[in-house]
Amino acid sequence: MARRRQLYEGKAKILFEGPEPGTLVQYFKDDATAFNAKKKGTITGKGVLNNRISEYLMTRLAEIGIPTHFIRRLNMREQLIREVEIIPLEVVVRNVAAGSLSQRLGITEGQRLPRSIIEYYYKNDALNDPMVAEEHITCFGWASTQDLDDIVALTLRVNDFLTGLFLGVGITLVDFKLEFGRLWENEEMRIVLADEISPDNCRLWDAKTGEKMDKDRFRRDLGKVEEGYQEVARRLGILPEAGPRDMTGPEVMQ
Ligand SMILES: Nc1ncnc2c1ncn2[C@@H]1O[C@H](COP(=O)(O)OP(=O)(O)OP(=O)(O)O)[C@@H](O)[C@H]1O
Ligand SMILES: [Mg+2]
């Protein structure tokens, strides 16, 4: 018997209908993909850790006034979120050169950027999520100029806050991807932070050694992938004592 209706299955998460209108349940899988799903695998315990890490970061961001879709974590792999109209953009922030920036422009990986860069990618798997400019975004109506102003302001605040938060636990926030959505309340529209913030969509390097603690360990076959995600959770102080595992019963975790 189906417990509830599944609305969407993505590469890393499944969306279910939530208990009340306007809510969804976001289920975090262990599935990992890279290079637009050309590389596929499993990272054991990733879903549990990403659920917890994203909960933690979204909660901290809400405390400084960033509107987010996050309502509460339901269990080890699920969280209750507000349903939003996803803006079809991946908003990428870069503080240090890495990944496609280094490849496309020949900038040495690890070079600190003189100022943070925001890039936009059009969320479209069939087109390989191409990079786009503001002009494309407004021309094709993916977001208005006002939406983009809000998105940039929120993104810069998120970057400043998370850079400090991670540095406090000995991690350099090299770059990360955000998604935003439109939330309608009493005929008024607000842009809110959606999706997830986790080592799946952040580059996180040990501040001293430069060791990678994110999905690049999977992308580049560096080994110790699970350990990287766990170490991020451990440093944030949110790793459950017994380590990540599936449980059905309630458990108090700080
Ligand atoms: N609050 C929300 N309301 C509605 N949709 C959301 C919300 N938060 C995230 N999403 C969407 O839910 C999906 C999460 O699944 P997942 O991250 O696995 O997708 P994906 O395989 O990365 O595919 P996509 O290219 O659509 O992101 C994404 O499409 C994301 O945009
Ligand atoms: Mg996704």
UniProtKB/TrEMBL annotation:
Instruction: List the catalytic activities from the record.
Output: 5-amino-1-(5-phospho-D-ribosyl)imidazole-4-carboxylate + L-aspartate + ATP = (2S)-2-[5-amino-1-(5-phospho-beta-D-ribosyl)imidazole-4-carboxamido]succinate + ADP + phosphate + 2 H(+)
Reply yes or no: does the keyword Cytoplasm apply: no
UniProt domain SAICAR synthetase/ADE2 N-terminal: residue ranges: 6-235
Q: What is its EC number?
A: 6.3.2.6
Source domain of life is Bacteria
Gene of origin?
A: purC
Source species: Neoroseomonas alkaliterrae
Alphabetic keyword roster = ATP-binding, Ligase, Nucleotide-binding, Purine biosynthesis
Please identify the protein, giving its name as recorded. Phosphoribosylaminoimidazole-succinocarboxamide synthase
